[in-house]
Amino acid sequence: MYDYIKGRITRVTPEYITVEQGGIGYQVITPNPYAFHADEEKQVFTHLHVREDVMQLIGFQAPEQRELFRKLITVSGIGPKGALAILAGGMTAQVVAAIEAEDEKFLVKFPGVGKKTARQIILDLKGKLDGVTDEVVFMTEADPEPALDSNHDLEEAMLALTALGYSERELGKIRPKLEKESLENTEAYMKRALALLLKQG
């Protein structure tokens, strides 16, 4: 129904962004809201998710992310929240590679994805993801730097990860590492946290 919305980002929260266009503020749920920045003009590629009890506008930075999202929600056991958690790290190419390589260990690291669901993702999507790639810069190991006493960006990243379904226990394991790093913004903390979460286990 809607291919994209082009407008000004007026609000960024741990779960959604607000995109203003034509005097209307559209609430758009995204994999990583902190990939967007308040007061910037942005084109957001959208998917309208409709159920009996809810209508949600889900947004992505690139059409390739949206395409992978649409593929993932066709898999039994994967709903919109689970698909968003898989896409939150901006690692579309890695997710596609894991599916094609039948790498269950990589897939089960996402919240809500157990061995059965990982196998179902591979069974349903392997060989059907041609063209679903994006230009992503993957996280690399960085030398830890001293943390600030109070880190608002880190706290926002933790809230966003909780909204995606990561448990306090999982986040507690990586938090000490993140507190030793001084990253530039919430998006950077999100990406670093997701990279650490995927290395666990």
Automatic annotation (TrEMBL):
GO molecular function, one term: four-way junction DNA binding
Keywords: ATP-binding, Cytoplasm, DNA damage, DNA recombination, DNA repair, DNA-binding, Helicase, Hydrolase, Nucleotide-binding
Subcellular localization: Cytoplasm
SUPFAM superfamilies named among the record's database cross-references: DNA helicase RuvA subunit, C-terminal domain (SSF46929), Nucleic acid-binding proteins (SSF50249), RuvA domain 2-like (SSF47781)
A cellular component term, taken from the record's GO annotations: cytoplasm
Signal peptide location: none
Keyword DNA damage: yes
Top-level division of the source organism's lineage: Bacteria
Biological-process GO terms, alphabetical: DNA recombination; DNA repair
Coiled-coil regions, chain positions: none
Entries under CDD domains matching the protein: UBA_RuvA_C (cd14332)
Record text about domains: Has three domains with a flexible linker between the domains II and III and assumes an 'L' shape. Domain III is highly mobile and contacts RuvB.
Subunit annotation: Homotetramer. Forms an RuvA(8)-RuvB(12)-Holliday junction (HJ) complex. HJ DNA is sandwiched between 2 RuvA tetramers; dsDNA enters through RuvA and exits via RuvB. An RuvB hexamer assembles on each DNA strand where it exits the tetramer. Each RuvB hexamer is contacted by two RuvA subunits (via domain III) on 2 adjacent RuvB subunits; this complex drives branch migration. In the full resolvosome a probable DNA-RuvA(4)-RuvB(12)-RuvC(2) complex forms which resolves the HJ.
Stated name of the protein: Holliday junction branch migration complex subunit RuvA
Species of origin: Bhargavaea cecembensis DSE10
Gene: ruvA
